[in-house]
Amino acid sequence: MASTERHEQDMRQKASRALRGGVKDPIEMLRLQCLSRGASGIKGLGRAFRIMDDDSNKKLDLNEFRKGISDYGLVLEDGEELTLFKLFDKDSSGTICFNEFLSNVRPPMNKSRRELVLKAFNKLDKTGDGVITVDDLKGVYDVTKHPKYISGEWSEEQVFLKIPRILRHP
Fold first, then answer.
1. Is 62 exposed, middle or buried (0-12, 13-18, 19+ CB in 10 A)?
2. Measured distance CA(159)–CA(150) in Å, rounded
3. Facing residues of 59 across strands?
4. N or C: which end of the chain has fewer CB within 10 A?
5. Residue 154 CA neighbour count, 13 Å, CB half
6. Digit-coded pLDDT (tens) for 50-106
7. How far is CA 154 from the centre of its chain?
């Protein structure tokens, strides 16, 4: 069994044990339900979000959210569902976008992981302005290794223009 598979299996088992332990916080319960079903990492949580997004508009309204959390085994009273929905809906738009969902459901990073991510971010942020732009990427990414560039489908400029979209929407 590969290391990644073993790690994901461990996470599922730990989440299942924690759920049996009587977790009370609804956000933690939903996080553990997602993890226990194998939704670890951004791709797995993205899959969970898309499953909940019945009309495929990349947003969850209250009804989709209610149905989705119920499908994931989280049973709450009507008032609790609305309270949880409002906690997720950071911009008070009446819907939950993927980033709002992700920021609430993904497990917090440990200290060493945060340090590693910050190092990587700082390496990419060539201008030091706290934002990774296409110009920053041009200094560190070799497009000639990108499969779409190699196949001739995309130009160098197209590769650089697509990367930020890919990073925003896993």
1. middle
2. 11
3. 97
4. N
5. 15
6. 888 999 999 999 999 998 888 877 777 778 889 889 989 999 999 999 889 888 877
7. 27
